[in-house]
Amino acid sequence: MKRLVLATHNKGKVKEIKTILKELNIEVLSISDIISIEDIEENADTLEGNAKIKAEYIHQKIGGYTLADDTGLFVNALNGEPGVHTARYAGENCSEKDNRLKMLKSLENIEDRTAYFKTVLVLIDDKGKEHIVEGICEGSIAFKETGEGGFGYDKIFIPKGYTKTFAQLGLDEKNKLSHRAKALDKLKILLVDVLNESSYN
Predict the structure, then answer these.
(1) Which residues form the domain of 104?
(2) How far apart are CA 130 and CA 105, in angstroms?
(3) Of the spans 26-35, 59-68, 188-197, which averages the highest pLDDT?
(4) Stretch 22-38: mean pLDDT, rounded?
(5) What is this structure's pTM?
(6) Does 126 qualify as catalytic in the annotation?
(7) Fewest beta carbons less than 10 Å away: which of 10, 66, 77, 108?
(8) What pLDDT does 17 receive?
(9) CATH number where 31 lies
(10) Can you state the percent helix, strand and coil of the chain, rounding each to 5?
(11) pLDDT above 80: residue 66
């Protein structure tokens, strides 16, 4: 069985990716399962650039199939912020809750709460070739935190067409419509081709 190593320590993200790719004949592991590394510095000014930095770093370390993602939340009333700074919106060593609270504070008394999430995935195959896919989920920012599940901004992001946050919807429902799920659906199709190609070469 082929092994796909994720360039993340985020347990919520790993669980989400494993769930979506479970039908494929591939073992999904976090980089933490294999080697101990420090956080990789993401200093690109695009999501794709950051995902490439992580994927290439891990691929150089261990080879094989590596997958990295970068996700940004783009809020229209904040001129597209936090964007590439989504994970560190409230500062370098902030918690996910700090980020959510800063977002709610930034949008205080603002009516236009439309926003979208974008995920870019970079897969490097066992021959070192890069493959890039992306997914977008439109929605809006809630007025307060709601729900118990999820991670990141899930407690304050309401996908378009819904009245509940990602955290209230639960993982199964979220995996049908989230930005990461859309990108991973494309990745699944791509992986089938890449794995088949690898079997014949």
Answers:
(1) 2-200
(2) 39
(3) 59-68
(4) 84
(5) 0.86
(6) no
(7) 108
(8) 87
(9) 3.90.950.10
(10) 40, 25, 35
(11) yes
Distance in angstroms (rounded) separating the CA atoms of residues 141 and 158: 6
- Give the chain's largest Cα–Cα span: 59
Place of tokens 């890069």: 130
- 3-state secondary structure (DSSP) of residue 163: coil
In DSSP notation, 88-155 reads GTT-TT--HHHHHHHHHHHTTT-S--EEEEEEEEEEE-TTS-EEEEEEEEEEEE-SS---SS-STTTT
Tokens standing for 192? 């089938």
* Residue 28 in tokens: 């999904």
User: Which residue, among 140, 97, 99, has the nearest Cα to 117 in the 3D structure?
Assistant: 140
**Residue 105 has which token pair?**
């504070």
- Per the CB < 8 A criterion, the answer to whether 65 and 52 are in contact is no
pLDDT at residue 37 greater than cutoff 80: no
Residue found by looking up tokens 């859309």 in the block: 182
Tokens 């509940």 map to which residue?
164
Q: What is the token pair recorded at 14?
A: 């790993």
Indicate the number of domains in the chain: 1
Q: Are the beta carbons of 114 and 76 closer than 8 angstroms?
A: yes
Q: Which residues contact 151 (CB under 8 A, 6 or more apart)?
A: 10, 12, 13, 96
DSSP class of residue 75? Answer: E
User: Which candidate in 69, 70, 125, 154 is catalytic?
Assistant: 70
Q: pLDDT at position 146, please?
A: 96
